[in-house]
Amino acid sequence: MANILIVDDEQGMRQLLSLVFGRAGHQVRAAENGRRAVEMLREAAADLIVSDVRMPDMGGIELLRAARELSPDIAVVMMTAFATVETAREAFKLGADDFIQKPFDVDELKLIVEKALELRQLKQEIQDWRKTQSDRGRLDQIIGRSPRMQAVYQMIETVAVVQSTILITGESGTGKELVARAVHNLSQRNDKPFVSINCGAFTETLLESELFGYVRGAFTGAAANRKGLFEAADKGTIFLDEIGEMSPAMQVKLLRVLQERKVRPVGGHEELTVDARVIAATNRDLPAMVKAGTFREDLFYRVSVIPIELPPLREKREDIRELVNHFAAKYSAQAGRSLTVSEAAMALLERYSWPGNVRELEHTIERAVALERTEQIQPERLPEQITNYSPARVADALDLPDDGLNLTAHLDQLEKTYLLEALRRTGGNQTRAAELLQLSVRSLRHLLDKHGIRNLTAQIRNDAARGAHE
């Protein structure tokens, strides 16, 4: 049932229509003129107005203008004993849904009101549908239908409406910035800036000036004041990628900004209030860094109010085919072609471990599209590490103790053993060790830090050099 506002300077008409629509189950209020009606609309919204045109203090046309400013989707039915073509034209031009001349049949007015309410409901449903389609479009860049990705989509839609700080974790190439942009696009801040910075790409001094800005004369070359990214993202979102690479000193300064919502430009004395939602991301194990004392515990809890973990591609293999087809369509369209992927090539792509995750897959397909001369991407267009990839086979029988084992601890130890063996075989060369384990160098270093053995690399390298010398 609808909330209806009756507006007429005749008390008898107000009473009659209040009774008619009240009996129909609607909630009804009444006002003696347009000015009082506007006051009532400010107090509580209405779904539909039934208003006379000629009234003292404020007429129906003026009320229609004011009502549209307060509530653009409100339905309005005008009634008058002095109907003219000009009056009707002006009413419809301002958005009136219908027009009826006094005296009128009450049943006819009821039908007009019912039609106006149905039209309002239809417009609302269309608007909601368009918003749903728009929201889906904002997630279009994140591909995948696996259960793990469905959980990510649900989390994005849930956290977009709140203002809490988000920490996105996952290996390199899993799409952390795409998720951050999706959260921003689905939030109420979507019409304000989305600002992104890779914290690992700057020295401590440069990162401070990038984030907080600087004033003229703060350092050599600072010829004018410069706005920082926090200020640029005011009322919007700032994405701090690779936050785990931030120095301890910068961690302290960032913590202060998150606590006080104020920044001080480099070389400045005044603080600026900023309202930017912070979304951070890292491929490092921040809890392990907290334990090791390389990442502040208080900052970790500040940035990880809402955690979102992105799975590596090898853990959602059911998404590989969809991703491959998406990138094949994207890059072949850019080349003015229409390429598909042969089943032979697809089988190799679905078998591969993808240490570089979605980013590696995208670059692989972009390269294949550029090289392919037929209408289908063939295995010959794929890199050698993919065509020659042979996943390790698990033994048919495992020696499982009768009293069981701690599987997590066992797998951790197995992982550590392979890391050390790869480093030993390559003489401590992390790049070659990563290739041997089919990992990116960044992922290898992440695992070395996880097991606390990164500092052994130099020792293994020295031992290898000493052995070669002897």
Would you kindly provide a written description of the structure presented here, covering whatever features stand out?
50% of the residues lie in helices and 13% in strands. It is built from 20 helices and 16 strands. The protein is α/β, with parallel strands linked by helices and 470 residues long. Helix 3 (60-70) links the parallel strand 3 and strand 4. The strands form five sheets. It has a five-stranded parallel β-sheet, sandwiched between helices. Strands 7-10-13-6-14 form a five-stranded parallel β-sheet. The chain has four domains: 3-129, Response regulator (Rossmann fold, 3-Layer(aba) Sandwich); 147-311, P-loop containing nucleotide triphosphate hydrolases (Rossmann fold), CATH 3.40.50; 314-387, Helicase, Ruva Protein, domain 3 (Orthogonal Bundle); 407-469, Arc Repressor Mutant, subunit A. The relative contact order is 0.07.
Task: Please report the first level of CATH classification, the CATH class of the largest domain.
Answer: Alpha Beta
**Would you count the extended β strands for me?**
16
Indicate the CATH architecture of the largest domain.
3-Layer(aba) Sandwich
Q: Can you summarize the main beta sheet?
A: 5 strands, parallel
CATH topology of the largest domain: Rossmann fold
Helix fraction? Answer: 40-55%
* Helix-strand makeup class: alpha/beta
What is the number of helical segments per DSSP (H or I, 4+ residues)? 20
Radius of gyration: 33 Å
Could you tell me how far the N terminus lies from the C terminus, measured between alpha carbons in angstroms? 92 Å
Instruction: Return the average pLDDT rounded to an integer.
Output: 86
